[in-house]
């Protein structure tokens, strides 16, 4: 089932975090449209809780689907990939109102900050299945 969530009140950022937590983010797929003020972060989301089933030497996992995190009213962003692994599990998004930025925290160190005019975040979880190597 496709899911779409949009928030403009930072008090609801927990709803965004529920959808993105532990999802895989590839820094090379991040795109920024300065004219529209929109940063798009494709990510892979596991559709249900992690459950492994072993049957005759076969392992199956929950389906993984393509999803998109969009940060609107973005004026700039920076990514410092000091670990150079490219793909990171998202932990949480934090809105820092005093510096008007959104910080994306990952489980593995990655400096990812987005300068914004306001907290305007969208998450779209598609039904498109993704195969991960």
Task: Please tell me about this protein's structure.
The chain has one helix and ten strands; from the N terminus they run E-H-E-E-E-E-E-E-E-E-E. With 133 residues, the protein is mainly beta. It has one domain. About 8% of the residues have low confidence.
List the helices and strands and how they pair.
Elements: E1 3-7, H1 13-20, E2 24-26, E3 31-33, E4 38-46, E5 53-55, E6 58-60, E7 64-80, E8 87-96, E9 101-106, E10 111-129
Antiparallel strand pairs: 1-10, 2-4, 2-8, 3-4, 4-7, 5-6, 7-10, 8-9, 9-10
What's the gist of this structure?
With 133 residues, this protein is mainly beta. 6% of the residues lie in helices and 59% in strands. It has one domain.
